[in-house]
Amino acid sequence: YGLEATLIPVLSFEFISLESLFEKLSHPECYGGLVFTSPRALEAIKICLKENSKSEAWSKSLKQRWSTKPAYVVGEATASLVEEIGLTPQGEKSGNAEKLAEFICSREKPNSSSLLFPCGALKREVLPTVLREKGIPLETLTVYQTTQHSHLQESLSSYFSQQGIPASIVFFSPSGVKFCLQHIQKLCGDFINHVK
């Protein structure tokens, strides 16, 4: 279409509570299954499993014990990461948290074992709320938080000095807007109204 796009990374993800995550993963008998609504939650698990002793525990017995339980996922990207750690995803066609919650409710019984939900600090409350209303226990554990990319200001300034004011700007997340908008307004000055 004759448009030129420049991608500027806006977000970084910081992984937290990984010891606690592995502790929970070490006790599949306490849970009815797993819930993943973002690829980052699986990156957290992969970081956990990089340590030799943990990787060994996973491949020797934990993976097999978790594989008897459902691993609910919200989309294809997350599903393929679930497969990489050796589990079989379910619900990947759901596409969003609301639909995944309905899918889980159609398969889980109220008051069964908790589902373990490793998630980000900014997770939406849709899925936990729907499951709570249906009496399906969910144990959430925050395993990553979203922060501003360390080179964001630098990247924006460099773009504006080389390319000038862009015709349009596209955002992919509320955090992206939160971290960028101020810088962009400063760099555009009075021309901000000309930017789509």
UniProtKB/TrEMBL annotation:
GO terms for biological process: heme B biosynthetic process; protoporphyrinogen IX biosynthetic process; uroporphyrinogen III biosynthetic process. Transmembrane segments: none annotated. One of its GO terms (cellular component) is cytosol. It holds the Pfam family HEM4. Keywords: Heme biosynthesis, Lyase, Porphyrin biosynthesis. Pathway: Porphyrin-containing compound metabolism; protoporphyrin-IX biosynthesis; coproporphyrinogen-III from 5-aminolevulinate: step 3/4. It comes from the Eukaryota. SUPFAM superfamilies: HemD-like (SSF69618). Residues 1-190 form the Tetrapyrrole biosynthesis uroporphyrinogen III synthase domain. One of its GO terms (molecular function) is uroporphyrinogen-III synthase activity. Belongs to the uroporphyrinogen-III synthase family. This is Uroporphyrinogen-III synthase. It comes from Nothocercus nigrocapillus. The gene is Uros.
